[in-house]
Here is the input.
Amino acid sequence: MSWFAFGSLLAAVICFAMGLFIYNQDRSNRLNQIFTLLCIVIAYVSFTEYGYRQAESVSQAIFWMQTSAFWPLQLSLLLHFALAYTEKDRWLKRWWTYLLLYGPAVAFTIITLINGYQATDVTKAYWGWTYTSAPDSFLWYFNGTWSTLSALFALVLFWFYWRKIRRTEGIKKDQALYILFGFSIPILAAVLGDGLLPQLDIRIPELTHTSLSLGVLFIGWGIWKYKLFVLTPARAAKDIIETMSNFLFLIDSGWKISTANPAALQLLGYDQKELINQPVGKIFPGQQWETDVLQGKRPYDLDMKTRMNSETLLLTKSGKRVPVIISVSTVRERESGQLGFICVGSDITERKLAEQRQDKLLKELERSNRELSDFAYVVSHDLKAPLRGIDTLAGWVAQDYGDKMGEKAQQQMQLMRERVRRMDDLINGILRYSRAGRANEEKTSVDTRELVRQIVDLLAPPPHISIEIDGSFPKIRAEKTRLSEVFQNLISNAIKYLDKPEGTIRVACQDRDEMWVFSVADNGPGIPEKDFGRIFQLFQTLKPNEGTASTGIGLALVKKIVEGAGGRVWLESKPLQGTKFFFTWPKE
Here is the structure.
């Protein structure tokens, strides 16, 4: 056995053993699975290389060369591993990615097994049997181009990924560096030995599989030293710290920054080297660390159970002050036994801006409500004064000159006084509506059955209308005046619009989860479904010209009071079959 054949055999053993070793570290890990398959294919092809290098005849050499036809799968698995490791998950979710990865390799393998083009011009060199492929074959050029591009693309992926994360601290950076070096060795050896030197008519032993075993060995050493591809608590913690969206600082007992994660570096605009071993005053302006973060506590006041949460400011590299919310926990340093600090937090700039906008809107709303209240009060009083004067004057005219006016003139005078009183009711309704939800009344215990009974007595319905208070009614804590207005408006509307010779109004209550459901039902004319939404709008009445003297404010007021208390109001009705209003009121 020649030394070259022994080298191929050793490469096969190393790759196979390393594949099993890596697979057993974490069998469920996708990277482990791909890398193990890569090692097994490399081991197989290396063993076939050993076979034809130490073959005793041409026929034996050709047999072993034919069996090495699966070598393109090495490049497919290498590129697959590169895509998985560099987190190109979006690509790996596409079916065409796998077609591009494995399609050419499978095609080259099948063609090689059928046509045997790989075993062309078998000769014996000083390192054993070898071969050359037909230089004029299109398949030869296509295969070579695909192999070169695949290997270089994998190397580029590793290179750019390492550049992307090289400034981070921890296991990921070490992984990327070892994998970059481990795979660059065989790729460069293949480009040199199988590509460049043959073009210069310089023949050397094929080094691809031997160099692959060296790369695998290099990565294996990294696995043993840094636990690459092995999920340990330490690695999981580092990965979490590096990928978490919240910033994190480790502060030592001397109040110096010992660690800052990528989120912290991005927020502050520093590099790792610029921040490590710097005093906390570099990022906490003024006395923020002592006053806001430690909340005035001294080191001897702190122990391992100390937890502090606060809002403070961080100072960026550019001098900008960023509002943050931060949680500080104490930890004990392993070597000195002194206390250090873990600071975790997040940027709350957007929240602060939202709070400012909210405060501004609340102030504008308060000002608007105040102006509306003042406006309603002033306008109502300015309007009611001339209305009272008109009503008084009309009364005097009717009293002094009623016997001298004709019947039509007396009707017009009466109509005018009714319109004045309706206008007065409308102004009073506007005042009640503008005050609803703003005037705070103390909540008291209200017996709702007794409240409804008092309202019925107050309204004094005509003899042909009966009002029933059906079932049990609760005692609730509520603003009595507001609740009274709701019942009074609903019951008075039912009385006002009843058009039957014998009218019936039923008031009831049901217990439903977190709410009391009250209802007021009548057997009146009903309401068309198309008007269900309109009747709760301000100044909207269904029959404005039929002598009901409705202001169109009552139901709008009911809706405003009920929704302001946390309930809702709705109705069920059909024309000529009566109407049933419901409203809910919170139990607490």
User: Anything to note?
Assistant: The mean pLDDT is 79. The chain is about 55% helix and 15% strand. The chain has four domains: 3-232, 244-347, 358-435, 444-586. Residues 349-401 form the longest helix (53 residues).
